[in-house]
């Protein structure tokens, strides 16, 4: 139980730091909070609503991992390094792919709600 408690505290601390230090994390948390009521309006079923919220939560997860990569890379060196730049770009690309996936889920759900599918 103690290990689970410590892991929970570490997770809370990491999220709190990310919220304080990264605008993108704040925006994605706002999007997640907004997605909860919107998903219940747009989702044709309860399961679809849950999927929509999870799609937005997935974007936040990828953003947190990208932020961790960027913070670690910046800790290694603040000098311009071509390889570190590529690593940061790949993290950014992962966020972009997650955003595209979430957008596709939401567009499909809207089309489904409108009765076109």
UniProtKB/TrEMBL annotation:
<dbReference type="InterPro" id="IPR036945">
    <property type="entry name" value="DAGK_sf"/>
</dbReference>
<dbReference type="GO" id="GO:0005524">
    <property type="term" value="F:ATP binding"/>
</dbReference>
<feature type="binding site">
    <location>
        <position position="3"/>
    </location>
    <ligand>
        <name>ATP</name>
    </ligand>
</feature>
<feature type="binding site">
    <location>
        <position position="3"/>
    </location>
    <ligand>
        <name>substrate</name>
    </ligand>
</feature>
<dbReference type="GO" id="GO:0004143">
    <property type="term" value="F:ATP-dependent diacylglycerol kinase activity"/>
</dbReference>
<feature type="binding site">
    <location>
        <position position="63"/>
    </location>
    <ligand>
        <name>substrate</name>
    </ligand>
</feature>
<feature type="binding site">
    <location>
        <begin position="24"/>
        <end position="28"/>
    </location>
    <ligand>
        <name>substrate</name>
    </ligand>
</feature>
<feature type="binding site">
    <location>
        <begin position="88"/>
        <end position="89"/>
    </location>
    <ligand>
        <name>ATP</name>
    </ligand>
</feature>
<dbReference type="InterPro" id="IPR033718">
    <property type="entry name" value="DAGK_prok"/>
</dbReference>
<feature type="transmembrane region" description="Helical">
    <location>
        <begin position="90"/>
        <end position="111"/>
    </location>
</feature>
<feature type="binding site">
    <location>
        <position position="70"/>
    </location>
    <ligand>
        <name>ATP</name>
    </ligand>
</feature>
<keyword id="KW-1003">Cell membrane</keyword>
<keyword id="KW-0067">ATP-binding</keyword>
<keyword id="KW-1133">Transmembrane helix</keyword>
<feature type="binding site">
    <location>
        <position position="70"/>
    </location>
    <ligand>
        <name>a divalent metal cation</name>
    </ligand>
</feature>
<dbReference type="InterPro" id="IPR000829">
    <property type="entry name" value="DAGK"/>
</dbReference>
<feature type="transmembrane region" description="Helical">
    <location>
        <begin position="52"/>
        <end position="69"/>
    </location>
</feature>
<comment type="similarity">
    <text>Belongs to the bacterial diacylglycerol kinase family.</text>
</comment>
<keyword id="KW-0997">Cell inner membrane</keyword>
<dbReference type="GO" id="GO:0046872">
    <property type="term" value="F:metal ion binding"/>
</dbReference>
<keyword id="KW-0547">Nucleotide-binding</keyword>
<keyword id="KW-0808">Transferase</keyword>
<keyword id="KW-0443">Lipid metabolism</keyword>
<feature type="binding site">
    <location>
        <position position="22"/>
    </location>
    <ligand>
        <name>a divalent metal cation</name>
    </ligand>
</feature>
<feature type="transmembrane region" description="Helical">
    <location>
        <begin position="29"/>
        <end position="46"/>
    </location>
</feature>
<keyword id="KW-0460">Magnesium</keyword>
<protein>
    <recommendedName>
        <fullName>Diacylglycerol kinase</fullName>
        <ecNumber>2.7.1.107</ecNumber>
    </recommendedName>
</protein>
<feature type="active site" description="Proton acceptor">
    <location>
        <position position="63"/>
    </location>
</feature>
<keyword id="KW-0444">Lipid biosynthesis</keyword>
<dbReference type="Pfam" id="PF01219">
    <property type="entry name" value="DAGK_prokar"/>
</dbReference>
<keyword id="KW-1208">Phospholipid metabolism</keyword>
<feature type="binding site">
    <location>
        <position position="22"/>
    </location>
    <ligand>
        <name>ATP</name>
    </ligand>
</feature>
<keyword id="KW-0479">Metal-binding</keyword>
<keyword id="KW-0812">Transmembrane</keyword>
<dbReference type="GO" id="GO:0006654">
    <property type="term" value="P:phosphatidic acid biosynthetic process"/>
</dbReference>
<comment type="function">
    <text>Catalyzes the ATP-dependent phosphorylation of sn-l,2-diacylglycerol (DAG) to phosphatidic acid. Involved in the recycling of diacylglycerol produced as a by-product during membrane-derived oligosaccharide (MDO) biosynthesis.</text>
</comment>
<keyword id="KW-0594">Phospholipid biosynthesis</keyword>
<keyword id="KW-0418">Kinase</keyword>
<keyword id="KW-0472">Membrane</keyword>
<feature type="binding site">
    <location>
        <position position="92"/>
    </location>
    <ligand>
        <name>substrate</name>
    </ligand>
</feature>
<dbReference type="GO" id="GO:0005886">
    <property type="term" value="C:plasma membrane"/>
</dbReference>
């Amino acid at each position: 139980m103690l290990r689970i408690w410590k892991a929970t505290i570490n997770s809370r601390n990491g999220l709190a730091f990310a919220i304080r230090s990264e605008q993108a994390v704040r925006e994605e948390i706002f999007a997640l909070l907004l997605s909860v009521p919107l998903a219940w309006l747009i989702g044709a079923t309860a399961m679809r609503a849950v999927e929509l919220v999870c799609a937005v939560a997935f974007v936040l997860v990828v953003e947190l991992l990208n932020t961790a990569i960027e913070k670690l890379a910046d800790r290694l060196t603040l000098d311009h390094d071509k390889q570190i730049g590529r690593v940061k770009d790949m993290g950014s690309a992962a966020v972009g792919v997650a955003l595209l996936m979430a957008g596709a889920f939401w567009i499909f759900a809207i089309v489904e709600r409108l009765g076109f599918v």
